[in-house]
Amino acid sequence: MGQSITRVAAAQSDKELQQVTPDEEYDIVARYESTLRALPLGIGALGIVGVLLNRTFSGIAPVVDATSSQSRADVLVIVMSAVLLLTGLSWLSLKSRPIEPVEPDGVIVSYIDESLPSSVAAELSWAWEALDACTRCVALVVIYQGRCILHQGFAARNASPADVKMGPICAKAIKSGTGNYLANLVFYPGRVEFVPYLPENIQGVVVQPIGEDGVLIAATDTQRGFSRLDQAWAATIADKLDQSLSSVASPTQPAEAQT
């Protein structure tokens, strides 16, 4: 048990060092945000410099003549360039604040229903290790046939598997057969559904149905902490767990979580 807690704590430290912005790995706008914000400024400056160079080397008189088509074109270019300059300055001054992770206000638990076959228990452990290693997931809960069969990572203080219940959000995900991503859970009224067993300051959760009998709940310590790729990964894991759990009889009442 001590080794499990040490491994999870080390994984959390590694995530804090990475500080990877969600979606940055494949979203070109997020990856080159600073460059794109400065792009209008550069194009606007280039337009004004181009007009001045054209006037200098083309032999056109520097005085603006309203009857000259060249002068009218130059005025339009200067106006458009000025708009781009102002747009670039605005974009640079309104740069978004970096998203910072929070320290979950809870305890680390490691619980797997002992009544499950060893092969299923191993697959549940793999699901947690995969999400823990590859995403900003700090807690994973699996509810199957009305009972908690897995709780790994952070949990609410003094919580036990018996406190894990499916609420309206989980029930809706199962009924619709599609996942739900609450990217900013702190300001979402439905967060009360997860408070009994997850830390109160958990920033977001992904809810994925496991067939028609269960649900996978992955929690993160960062607002918008799960990218679209992470959500797809969680959905794939949920589908795999459905195949393994569908042949398992209803698990027995869970024991107290180890903390």
Automatic annotation (TrEMBL):
One of its GO terms (biological process) is cytochrome b6f complex assembly. Coiled coil: none annotated. One of its GO terms (cellular component) is chloroplast. It comes from the Eukaryota. Keywords: Membrane, Transmembrane, Transmembrane helix. This is Cofactor assembly of complex C subunit B. The chain crosses the membrane at residues 36-54, 75-94. It holds the Pfam family CCB2_CCB4. InterPro entries: CCB2/CCB4, CCB4.
